[in-house]
Amino acid sequence: MNRVDIFKMAFKNLFRRKLRTFLTTLGIIIGTISIVVTISLGMAMKKSFEDQMKNMGSMNIITVNPGYDQRKMVMARRNDEEPTITQEQLEKIIKVKGVDAVTPIREERIKLVSGKYIASVQVKAVWPEFVKELGANVEKGRLLQKGDTSSMVLGSDIPYQFRDKNAKEDKMANQYRMMDREGKRPDPKVDVMKDKISLTFDMDYGVKRRNVNGSSKPKKKKVRPQDITCVGLLKQGNWQTRRAVYISMDYLEKIKGSYLRKVETSEERKERLKKERKGKGYQEVLVKVSDVKKIKGITEEIRGLGCDAWSDMQWIEQAEKEMNVIQMILGGIGAISLLVAAIGITNTMVMAIYERRKEIGVMKVIGSSIGDIKKLFLIESSLIGLLGGIFGSTASILLSKLINHIGRTTVLKNAPPEQMLSYIPLWLMGAALGFTALIGLLSGYLPARKAMKLSALEAIKTE
To answer: Rounded distance, CA 451 to CA 349, Å?
Structure first.
C-alpha cells in the first residue's frame, strides 16, 4: 500500500464512527484550550513585566555607587563627608573590557525659575555625549552635545513641576499629578523650549521666611539666578529620565563654584577647598554595555574595584525565573486535561482494533505488510490529535480575545493599550499543534502494535 492509500483509509475509518471520533477529538480540543489559555495567562504576565522593565530603564546600563563598607562609613562620618567614587576608580572602570561608554554623575538639588514660576528639581551633571547612551529620545529639540555649556535637557515631567511662587503652600499641587476629567494632563504653565529660564542653588529662592518678629529675613545672601537654555525635552520614558534635568558636568562645577564663592563664609570656603584638594569624587557612575550577556561579569569586576554595582538585568533574571515557575504550574494544570484526552485516544484505538479484527485479518491475507497496518493506526491517532489541536488552538485564540476584551472593560480599564490578560504568540500555536499530533501518535502506538500482532487466521475465524 502506498502512503496516499493509507491516508485515505485512515480518514475513512475515522469518519465511519463519527460520534466516537468527535468525542475523542473533543477531549483533545478541551485539553488544548486548557493548556494554551493557561500558558497564555502566564505569557501575558511575563510580557507585561518585560514592557514595564523597558519603561523603567535601559537593560544594558550598570549603575555604580560608592562602596559602603563599614570602615568607609565610619571614616566618612568622622570627616563629615559623603562616600564617593574616586577619580582613580572611575579610570579603572573605563578600562574594564566590554564597557562601551561611561559617565560620572553629580546630583544637585536646584531651583528652576521662569518669571513667577519656580520648580524644585534634581539636576544630573553628566558628560554630555553620554545622554544618548541612556536610550533617551527627545520630543522637542535635541540632546546634549559635547561643548554645550549653559544648556540643559529636561525630563518629560519637569514642565509640570513649575508652580506659582506666590501661591499659598496649601494650594500648591504639582501639575504632573493633576488630571482633567478625561485623564489627561493640562498644558504646563511654562513652555520650557521658549520661555526664559534660570537656575539657582538657593533652595530658599521664592520662599518667604519670617522671624519671630514677623519681618522677612533672607536666610542667605541673594545671588542672581544663572540663565540657562533648554535645548531638548525628552519623550515620556523610563523613571530614570522622566524627572531628571541633564546638564554638562563642567558647567555644573563652574556655576556652583561661582555661587559658593558669593554665599559662603571664609571658614566654609577653606573647608570646601580642603575637600577639593583631596581629589574629585562622584556620587554615581553609569556604565553602558552593548552585550547584555557580559553585564553580570562586568558588574562583578566593578565590584572588585571597591564599588557597589547593579543593573536591572540582575533582578529581572530572578523575576523571570519566578514567572517561568508560574507558567510551568499553569501549563501543568492544562496538561492534566491533555493527558486525560490522550487516554481517550488510546481507548478509542483499542476499541477500533476489536471492531475491525476482520478488516485487519483481510489486509494481512491480501498481502498488506505489518508496517502498513502499524502506519494506518498511527496515522488515525495522529489525525485525531492534529484535528483536536487545530480546533483547540482556534478556540483558544477566540477565548483569548474574549478574555482581553472583558479585561479591557474591567480590570485593565486605565491600563496602557499594549497590556493584556492573555497573550498567545505564534510559536505557542505551533507548539500546541505539534504537541497534540505527538500526543495522538504516542497514544496510538500500543494499539498499533496490538494490531500488528493480531493473527490473520484467528481474526477471520473469529468473525
So the answer is: 10
pTM for the model: 0.60
pLDDT tens for residues 124-157? 888 888 877 776 778 889 988 888 888 999 988 8
Tell me which residue has cell 494490531: 451
Residue 380 located in a structural domain: yes
Q: Which amino acid is at 438?
A: L
Name the domain count of the chain: 2
| Secondary structure letter of residue 434 according to DSSP | H
How would DSSP label each residue in 263-310?
A: HS-HHHHHHHHHHHHT--EESEEEEE-S-GGGHHHHHHHHHTTTEEEE
State which amino acid sits at residue 364: K
In this structure, which amino acid lies at residue 407?
A: G
Per DSSP bridges, beta strands 101-114 and 197-200 are antiparallel
CB-CB contact of 341 with 442 (8 Å): no
Q: Determine how many CB atoms are found less than 10 A away from the CB of residue 182.
A: 5
Q: Is residue 305 part of a domain?
A: no
In a domain, 301, yes or no: no
- Yes or no: say if 456 and 361 are a contact pair by the CB < 8 Å rule: yes
Query: CA 24, 3, 359 angle in degrees (round to 5)?
Result: 60
Mean pLDDT of 52-80: 65
Q: Kindly report, residue by residue over 308-318, the tens digit of the pLDDT.
A: 888 877 767 77
* 140 and 240 housed in the same domain: yes
Structural domain that includes position 331: 3-55+318-462
Residue-level pLDDT at 228: 92
The one-letter code for the residue type at 256 is K
Cα–Cα distance between 39 and 109 in angstroms, integer? 47
Same domain for 212 and 77:
yes
Is residue 219 domain-shared with residue 261, that is, in the same domain? Answer: yes
CB 154 within 8 A of CB 230: yes
3 state DSSP class of 188: coil
- 350 & 234 share domain: no
330 in the same domain as 271 = no
CA distances from 324 to 46, 173, 227, 267, 377 (A): 8, 42, 53, 60, 37
Give backbone dihedrals phi and psi of 106, rounded to 5 degrees, phi first. -120, 130
Asked if residue 242 lies in contact with residue 157, where contact means CB atoms within 8 angstroms, the answer is yes
Question: Measured between alpha carbons, how far is 358 from 364 in angstroms, rounded to an integer?
Answer: 10
Q: Which is more confidently placed, 346 or 387?
A: 387
Q: Is residue 303 part of a domain?
A: no
Which of residues 266, 288, 310 is at a domain's end?
A: 288
